[in-house]
Amino acid sequence: MAEETIFSKILRKEIPADIVYEDDRVTAFRDINPKAPTHILIIPNYNIPTANDATEKDEAVLGHLVVVAGKIAKQEGIDEKGYRLIINCNRDGGQEVYHLHMHLLGGRPLGRMIV
Ligand code: DGP
Q1: What is the pLDDT of residue 114?
Q2: CA distance 104 to 78
Q3: Ligand 1: distance of its center to the CA of 32 in Å?
Q4: Rounded Cα–Cα distance for residues 31 and 14 (Å)
Q5: For each of the chain's 115 residues, which pLDDT tens digit applies?
Q6: Ligand 1 midpoint to CA 97 (Å)
Q7: How far is 36 from 104, CA to CA, in rounded Å?
Q8: Which of 39, 99, 101, 103 is catalytic?
Q9: What's the angle, vertex CA 104, arms to CA 113 and CA 74, rounded to 5?
Q10: 101 is a catalytic site residue
Q11: CA 70 to CA 85: how far, in whole Å?
Q12: All domains of the chain, ordered by start, with CATH?
């Protein structure tokens, strides 16, 4: 079984988070250290540590992350202007929390890439 992270505690509501969306498969909450006016993390409700650990059984939930990202972007009023979705993997990818998550960033022009 994957190791616990701070995100497991957020899922169990043991520590506070500004949750903007939740259903039976995924949960979304505002990043504690926002890099843009809208910076939301969307996570599966169970721990897949990194993109390397994703398997065929995770395909539905991983696809759902993107569908939910679109819904939240609309909710945040950034869908028309646009936004960026990022999944970091391991050290070179800048991953800090080993519970796979998708960053939804928007609310300002982000440039062509974040480096
Ligand atoms: P990453 O580098 O892709 O692993 O991003 C992890 C993000 O998680 C980082 O932008 C900060 C955010 N984060 C870390 N701890 C917490 C927390 O306790 N609460 C919230 N809301 N966000 C957190």
Answers
A1: 62
A2: 10
A3: 6
A4: 17
A5: 678 999 999 999 999 999 999 999 999 999 999 999 999 999 999 999 999 999 999 999 999 999 999 999 999 999 999 999 999 999 999 999 999 999 999 999 999 986 5
A6: 6
A7: 9
A8: 101
A9: 120
A10: yes
A11: 10
A12: 6-106 (3.30.428.10)
Three-state secondary-structure class, residue 43: strand
Tokens 């250290």, residue located = 33
| pLDDT of amino acid 95 | 98
pTM of the model: 0.97
For atom 14 of ligand 1, which residue has the closest CA?
32
Task: Output the CA 31–ligand 1 centroid distance in Å.
Answer: 6
| Binding pocket residue ranges, ligand 1, CB within 6 Å | 6, 17, 29-33, 41, 88, 94-97
